[in-house]
Amino acid sequence: xxHFGQWRKNILNICHxxxxxxxxSLLLLDLEEHYFExxxxxxxxxxxxxxxxxxxxxxxxxxxxxxxxxxxxxxVFFFFFSQIYLIKEENxxxxxxYERVKKRVxxxxxxxxxxxxxxxxxxxxxRASCLDKLGDQTAMxxxxxxxRLARTCFDKNSFQHVTENPHMECVAEMVSPLVTNAGxxxxxxxNLYFQPMNSYPVxxxxxxxxxxxxxxxxxxxxxxxxxxxxxxRDELYYYIATFLENHxxxxxxxxxxxxxxxxxxxxYQYLLHLNNLADRSVNDxxxxxxxxxxxxxxxxxxxxxxxxxxxxxxxKPIGALNTERLERLLExxxxxxxxxxxxxxxxxxxxYVLFYLVxxxxxxxxxxxxxxxDQADRMFNSVGETWKNCLEGGTDFKExxxxxxxxxxxxxxxxxxxxxxxxxGGGRVExxxxxxxxxxxxxxxxxxxxALECQYVSEHLHEWIDLIFGYKQRGSEAVAxxxxxxxxxxEGGVDCDSIEDPDxxxxxxxQILEFGQTPRQLFVTPHxxxxxxxxxxxxxxxxxSSSELSPLSPSMESFEDLTExxxxxxxxxxxxxxxQSCHKIHKxxxxxxxxxxxxxxxxxxxxxxxxxxxxxxxxxDAVSHICWRxxxxxxxxxxxxxxxxxxxxxxxxxxxxxxxxxxxxxxxxAGVNTLDLSPAGTLLATGTKEGTLxxxxxxxxxxxxxxxxxxxxxxxxxxxxxxxxxxxVGEDSCLVVTDVQTGMLIATVHAExxxxxxxWDGNTVLSGGMSGDLSVWDLLSSKVIHKIPxxxxxxxxxxxxxQCSTIITGGVDKQIILWxxxx
Length: 823
Prior knowledge:
This protein is α+β, with helices and mostly antiparallel strands.
């Protein structure tokens, strides 16, 4: 996929080049105005010394106007159906000029045979403009548009290759910011085509429907198609996924979360992914990607990224950062009739986006504001002033856009030489004033990127995600976090389909468009924190201490030491497991394996063995799983309990009867099938026959978190080496990753067959399945990268030593097999 900054730079270059070549632009049309067709024509001068003089040009038929673009002049003439005005446009990036038409305008078509057809559509559009209600006008224009589309079809002469086979054709709209363009979509076995009804060259587009992203090597732009039929949209998606070589990959917020937590993608990349999943697109100004202000210091000569005071509090929305302002807003909120809201404006809207981008997208600003730039003192003049206004202004709560963390600084410079007016002090609006700590725009962006990826932001970004995309976006949590906006801004906040009056419906849609929209909610539970090196200041409950959730001691400099390197090497060679020895010591299937701390004793259980030990272990049913840690034995049983035992024998490897004292018991609502201890030995995870995963504090009999993550029996659970995550496998053939701190289910991988047991390092999984094979998984890509034949029947249990250099597996074939990775 294109890097965001480069993508936008390429698109803007195309737009400006096109405008130099052609003075007409769809941005000159009214919002929601449609461009139907164009014809070569001549403007005839009826009176005066130049009577009967013919001016050649292009006549464009639109839903609210007729436009004539002369071939040899710098003016573009607009003739509106409702009020006949002439618009002179001498510069595409300057305010528009209006003049009333004082004489009759006559056109002669180059192809006279089309006159009757053009007169017919002009009469239809004129009748639409004469209707009293805006809703009736819109409905009639839509009917005319559908009629024109039905009379045409995709021109297959446009195929890139003569051998292409078309699979589907339908009508749709491609929409760039503030612009829609109707036409025909065609999907072949090689390409996806969009052909505008009016032949207007479109470079990029966007609106609700289906968004198609192109790779950097593709000679196309990302497109966002709006369909008139959900059935046609779904069919097109199917064909893209089926016939195109690079078919669409389904990605979830949870899968990206796991990659982000483990450092496989940056903060910037993760925020872009979340924006995309929340229906935010650079092609839709009302749902533009939203990024946070992270720096609060815009006055110092040096930016200190190691000082927490340099950063904004990411746990609060912009409106709650200033205590005095917040008190005034809350007082108004408490006295406000229904519907209640704390902020009268949003943190992202078309106006705010163009406020930042006016220097590179002036045509969009002119389109949005009826041909006028904003007042000079209200423009984006200074980064520091903008931040100050966001902190102190009564109606300014805007966040940032991705460009502030990109590589293209052109939006901070007036490279087009635009006349944006003069401020009250007399100075012209030119380049954006930067903080003292930035030497130039490129240096500013570089330091903004460093700030976004620094440790402080990495440790707190999840708090901002909770506000924008997560559980603090709505409901009581939003109220408590002072994060309540107008109901119109939320998805589903207004049922527009229930509004019967067309004018009211259009007014409501316009208000929603201009006010801004809250992203689609992605998370309904607290977002997990990112795993960062030297992570010692984690806010945690007494049960989830910082030392438990981080494997680092204060003296460590990073995650990597010699032991970690050896583990990484072992896991990188896990696809080269070599069988060392095989032992058949049970009469039934092997159900559990544990190794004494000394390493010289292997404990294993089978179905029959588990029942013989019921009295010894004090359970009322079979022992389903055992785990040995230090001098303690942990047993899970189908009697719905887990018990912790202390070994009191002097030599547990001797033939003497081993004595165990009961230390603790944990009760469940169903039979317990599996358990695991965290590396620090303070947390216990258990899985039941009914698919419930429970997290326990060893020091307390009460569960910390409990959730149903499988539809059926859980075969095994295991903590990641850093204790951040728990992986579980069940008879539903799923591998599920759960966050320890929040209890959030963050990834689900569907396997081809049921997996019974596994070991993992947080990223790679070695699992045993029903077929008897061992599978090596790349969890982040959800793919099996290697399979190893092992048992003749299901692999039922697995053990790995701390160095990851020895693996022991057991199966229904009653065998225990020892393995080692080959280097």
